[in-house]
Amino acid sequence: MGFVDLLVVAVIPVIQLLLATAVGLFMAVDSVNLLGPVARHSLNNLVYFVFCPALVISSLAETITFESLVSLWFMPVNILLTFIIGSALAWFLIQITTTPPHLHGLVIGCCSAGNLGNLLLIVVPAVCQEANSPFGDSSVCSTSGEAYASLSMAVGAIYIWSYVYIIMRVCANKSIAPIGDDSTANIDILKESSKTCLESCKENLLPSSMHGAEMPGSGSVKRMQVPVIKKMVHFINMIAEKIEFKMIFAPSTVAAILGFMIGSISPIRKALIGDSAPLRALNCSASLLGEPATPCMTLIIGANLLNGLKRSGVGLPVIVGVILVRYLFMPLLGIGVVKAACSFGMVGSDPLYQFVLMIQYAVPPGMSVGIIAELLEVGESECSVIMLWSYLLGAFSLTIWSTFYMWILA
């Protein structure tokens, strides 16, 4: 199959995505106002809490079995590598462009977290359905492609709401820390508060016979021993306070865990999946609720891009740097990673599987980064600008890299 034929196969899904995104952008225009801020917020909640989890659990339950999960073990590793490589490149970008501190987390998020969900669910099945597709029979290709895309979306959701969210939260906390004289004043206040607290604890906790005695460690009183178990409990509590388990176990993450369980545990799978399954109505309902997820997420992408047209709160070097990381360095490194994995026998010979692994390095930044920025209230306008240019140029980049990947795999 020639390069031009592969280009046609790759461009059709991207055109579909662009058209749906343009509809979302049009619906968000002030004169139309069908997807204004309030409507967009409500639709986003529906996607986050209902549509996307239903799509994840139904897709994984139907397409992932224990055998396929074992054979696809490299995909979670590959996705983790995309996050690690993207974070490393983002760190170099921050150093080169002297990015403002409050944008460090946003740059790392945009460079490390790709759109591993709805984009692959659109692009991969559409490529399979093309007459000139290099991946064989369309029905077999579509089934396998949906399984790969569903697993990618599930694993990507877990990494985004754990790895990326924690990084952006830490960077946000650092960027809003007080500086200058206010910081010195706050430190003095904290010292006084700590001194008062220690004196109060001494009065309340030490026996009356020890009041006025020297504190432990001074030589007159032996050092009080704290049990190891209490130290461990205290340490775990400190870690739990730093980590937002509510965000790590997002609805899509919980749905992915349930989908893995249903698909991999044979008795549960037989009860829920299949035309003769006694509880097949539950899976059918989840599948029905999951169908609007992809079009709704695409409309939200288009509507959110409108903010990027209205604002310009980020420097040009940062925008160019993010685009180069996501559309040049990441795809090139992705080829090397996948080819190395194939040479070491970590990846099978299925060209569609290798195509999905490679394209995970070439997708635009994940829209969940924008949701995290809104939740943390840091870099919201800058995120809109970065997303606008990333998705405008991503249409061309995704077409070119998809064509190139199919050409080297065909």
TrEMBL record:
Coarse class of the protein's main subcellular location: endoplasmic reticulum
Domain of life from the UniProt record: Eukaryota
GO biological process: auxin-activated signaling pathway; endoplasmic reticulum to cytosol auxin transport
Localisation: Endoplasmic reticulum membrane
Entry's Gene Ontology cellular component terms: endoplasmic reticulum membrane
Membrane topology, from the record: Multi-pass membrane protein
InterPro entries, per the entry: Mem_transp_PIN-like, PILS1/3/4/5/7
Record's keyword annotation contains Membrane: yes
Alphabetically ordered keywords of this record: Auxin signaling pathway, Endoplasmic reticulum, Membrane, Transmembrane, Transmembrane helix, Transport
The keyword Ribonucleoprotein is assigned to this record: no
Role, per record: Involved in cellular auxin homeostasis by regulating auxin metabolism. Regulates intracellular auxin accumulation at the endoplasmic reticulum and thus auxin availability for nuclear auxin signaling.
Family: Belongs to the auxin efflux carrier (TC 2.A.69.2) family.
Protein name: PIN-LIKES 3
Organism: Hibiscus trionum
